[in-house]
Specification:
Belongs to the multi antimicrobial extrusion (MATE) (TC 2.A.66.1) family. It is found in: Membrane. It is a multi-pass membrane protein. This protein has one domain. With 449 residues, it is an all-alpha fold. The longest helix has 38 residues. The relative contact order is 0.14. The mean pLDDT is 85. Helix content is 82%, strand content 0%.
Length: 449
């Protein structure tokens, strides 16, 4: 039975969620700025960014176990009073990030053109995508180091420093982007590749700050900076399920981008605008989930009423997520006629935007609940369940609608109907799991399955 004392004060959730919100929003907000800057180059450049941006985002987000998995493991150790071991998780996650990031960089350069041509249907759109992607891939190891840094720092309930680090990097990118794309003074600029270079500049700053923070924490806690094969194996075991889950997202969003380009540059560009807004709000809503990950993991790591406190937290964050989702739905419904022209003046693109816009607005309350409960289950280390249900949602909901849209000419309406089905299936799955007791397993380390 849940006691009143098991409930976490709202201010404690806010203390973790408030700094996490701008951290989560910084990257998609920068991408919105990037979209607006590139939109001035025309529909082909914007469609190229849509294809390349989805490829890069899916490759890096597929490796988000470096953040979410590290948070879950570090939070349990922190809740059990083992801070040095929690910092050690950050050290090993950073080594893993560097190794995997270099692999992504090398393989990405080899496959950039064939992937862009497959998704962009050849021609000018694919050429634009390749020019952006080759430069952006230089930042892959830096993005992954930042994910690992966010992971261990959230685990020890420090969300203030990551805020400063991420804002420093993304702020520099936002300032550099218009200059590198469009030029200044007598310089004509680099065009679309300038957007990717601005990304890399900011990512270098952010990753350097996270590495510095890790080195200081390791020194203070007397933690070795050497790789530990045992910890790396444990992190990869949890990462296996999270990667499989991310593969479902990757298949869905890459398929959506590929199908959107088949309906022309205007449809692909409109899809890019609304999709970036979706990613932006998804990560803003995920601020509550980040607080849930840290607090649920710490609760389950504690020997005193850990399961009861974790269940109370699950109920709390579900309510918070629903309220935020409803608020965003109302806000962006009101902005339907005002916001799209900020991203592009192209009349053909603006004519396509409303098709996707109202699906995006209607899904916000559902997204608020789904992302909040995702945070609860991720904090509990319940990655296997999330893997299975996300794969089912992709196979039964998103992918059939996307490819039917191509076959029957449904356009963006078919693509976004698939996203609705995907979210509704996930809503049912995480709600049923949260009502059970199978996810609330206590201990400093979640037992291996």
């Amino acid at each position: 039975m849940t006691r009143v004392s098991d409930r976490v004060p709202a201010r404690q959730v806010l203390r973790l969620a408030a700094p996490a919100l701008p951290v989560l929003a910084a990257e998609p907000l920068y991408l919105l700025v990037d979209t607006a800057v590139v939109g001035r180059l025309g529909a082909v450049a914007l469609a190229g960014l849509a294809v390349a941006g989805v490829v890069f985002a899916q490759v890096t987000s597929q490796l988000n176990f470096l953040s979410y998995g590290t948070t879950a493991r570090a939070a349990r150790l922190h809740g059990a009073g083992r801070r040095s071991a929690a910092v050690g998780e950050g050290v090993q996650a950073t080594w893993l990030a560097l190794a995997v990031g270099l692999l992504v960089l090398c393989v990405g350069q080899l496959v950039a053109r064939p992937v862009a041509e497959a998704l962009g249907d050849g021609g000018a759109i694919a050429e634009a995508a390749v020019s952006w992607l080759r430069v952006a891939l230089l930042g892959a190891p830096l993005v992954l180091v930042t994910l690992a840094g966010n992971g261990w720092m959230r685990g020890v309930q420090d969300t203030a420093k990551p805020l400063r680090y991420v804002l420093a990097g993304n702020g520099l990118s936002a300032v550099a982007c218009p200059v590198l794309v469009h030029g200044a003074g007598g310089w004509a600029g680099m065009g679309l590749p300038g957007s990717a270079l601005a990304n890399v500049v900011g990512q270098t700053v952010g990753a350097s700050l996270f590495v510095g923070a890790l080195a200081r924490a390791a020194r203070a806690e007397s933690v070795s900076l050497r790789p530990s094969p045992a910890v790396l194996r444990a992190q990869m075991a949890l990462g296996r399920d999270l990667i499989a889950r991310s593969l479902a997202f990757q298949a869905c969003f890459l398929s959506a981008a590929a199908v959107a380009t088949r309906f022309g540059a205007a449809a692909a560009a409109a899809h890019q605008i609304v999709l970036q807004l979706w990613f932006f709000l998804a990560l803003v809503l995920d601020a509550v989930a980040i607080a849930a990950q840290s607090l649920v993991g710490a609760a389950l790591g504690s020997p005193e009423r850990g399961a009861q406190r974790a269940r109370a937290l699950a109920a709390q964050v579900t309510r918070y997520g629903l309220v935020l989702g409803v608020a965003f739905g109302v806000l962006f419904g009101a902005l339907a006629g005002v916001l799209p022209p900020v991203f592009t003046p192209d009349v053909a693109v603006l004519a396509e935007v409303p098709v996707a816009w109202w699906f995006f607005v209607a899904m916000q309350p559902v997204a608020g609940v789904v992302f909040a409960l995702d945070g609860v289950l991720l904090g509990a280390g319940d990655a296997a369940y999330l893997r299975t249900t996300t794969l089912l949602a992709a196979v039964l909901g998103f992918l059939p609608a996307i490819w039917a849209s191509l076959a029957f000419g449904w356009g963006l309406a078919g693509i976004w109907s698939g996203l609705v089905a995907f979210m509704l299936i996930r809503l049912v799955a995480v709600s049923l799991r949260a009502r059970s007791d199978r996810w609330a397993v206590t201990g400093a380390v979640r037992p291996a399955r």
